[in-house]
Write a structure and sequence with these properties.
Blueprint (H helix, E strand, L loop, with lengths): L1 E7 L2 E7 L5 H8 L18 E4 L2 E4 L12 E3 L12 H8 L9 H14 L5 H7 L10 H14 L3
Parallel strand pairs: 1-5
Antiparallel strand pairs: 1-2, 3-4, 3-5
Length: 155
């Protein structure tokens, strides 16, 4: 067992865990942050995307121990003061979700995209989301939502 310490959604956390614990397991099982989903166990679907030190990461590809000292943001950490993040609001407004299972990973990936490219083209959005799978085939509205969020935030 080892102790892992990091900041998650602005809160310092420190937990004892097995060295083989994946970050997604740590977040869900030890911190109770179940918005980060496990969809495939093979890092193909993107449902587990979180931000580690400001970059989108598939939490199923990273050990919790590798996040030692890191700043981690999950879908639960995006909203501020009861207000949805602009990307979350755009997903809601433009029906960028269907069953909702992929939505947390899509939103987290989209936030990272807009931090890197505030005015993405449709092709840019589709390219960025290549590692995120929507099994309900909702890509059209997801792309619309991301572009709307870009416009709403000045992109």
């Amino acid at each position: 067992m080892l102790t892992v310490s990091m900041t998650v959604n602005g809160q310092a956390v420190s937990k004892t865990t097995e060295p083989r614990t994946l970050l997604v397991q740590f977040l869900r099982e030890q911190l109770g942050l179940t918005g980060t989903h496990v969809g495939c166990d093979t890092s193909q679907c993107g449902a587990c995307v979180v931000h580690v030190n400001g970059k989108s990461v598939k939490a199923c590809t990273m050990l919790a121990a590798q996040a030692e000292g890191a700043d981690v943001v999950t879908i639960e950490g995006l909203a501020e003061n009861g207000e949805l993040h602009p990307v979350q609001a755009a997903f809601k407004e433009h029906h960028g979700l269907q069953c909702g299972f992929c939505t947390p990973g899509m939103v987290m990936s989209a936030v990272d995209l807009l931090q890197n490219n505030p005015n993405p083209s449709e092709a840019d959005v589709r390219d960025w989301l290549e590692g995120n799978i929507c099994r309900c085939t909702g890509y059209h509205n997801i792309v619309k939502a991301i572009q709307a969020a870009a416009n709403a935030t000045g992109g």
